[in-house]
Amino acid sequence: MEYLIIKWLHILSAILLFGTGLGSAFYKLFTDLSGNLEAISVTNRLVVKADWIFTTPTVIIQPITGFWMLSLAGMSLEQTWLWLSIALYLLAGACWLPVVVLQIKMRNQADHCRKTAQPLPESYYTQLKIWVALGIPAFFAMVAVTALMVLKPV
User: Would you kindly state where each structural domain of the chain is located, as residue ranges?
Assistant: First the structure.
């Protein structure tokens, strides 16, 4: 029973991690492209908040529950799929950390521009391009991690 509870927590946190990331990216990108400064400001605030409420805890829960399940199942740590999934998870994390910093900067810029009735500066859109460029490999890394976790190829 313990294994099934840990597995449920692992799957639930994976859903929250993936869903929050994909949903936040979708709404942030399309809101930014709309040019609606009020909407951009609100969406950026909510994306940053979602990262703290959902993404950060799940980033921590995933490896804890994953290694816990491996231990409970008596599985070897010497499996190629496991090390590949860890490497891809770390790649996604290496992309996510600068994305978080960019999101905070963009949130602050959008709030300032909204409050002072100024248009977003070009630097905002430069940061958005970097944000997208980092988000793409993070997304595909997490898709691959999910596949490796489910399929556990030999």
Answer: 2-151
Distance CA 126, CA 145 (A): 29
Over residues 121-132, the pLDDT tens digits come to: 999 999 999 999
**Cα dist from 76 to 68, 73, 83, 87, 112, whole Å:** 12, 9, 11, 17, 52
Q: Tell me the C-alpha distance between 51 and 71, whole Å.
A: 29
DSSP state letter for 43: H
> What single string gives the DSSP state of each residue in 106-128?
HHHHHHHHHHHT-PPPHHHHHHH
32: three-class secondary structure by DSSP: helix
Residue 152, CA distances (Å) to 71, 81, 82, 147 in order: 16, 6, 8, 8
In angstroms, the CA 42 to CA 28 distance is 10
Cα gap 106→51, rounded to integer Å: 14
pTM over 0.85: yes
Burial class (CB in 10 A: 0-12, 13-18, 19+), 150: exposed
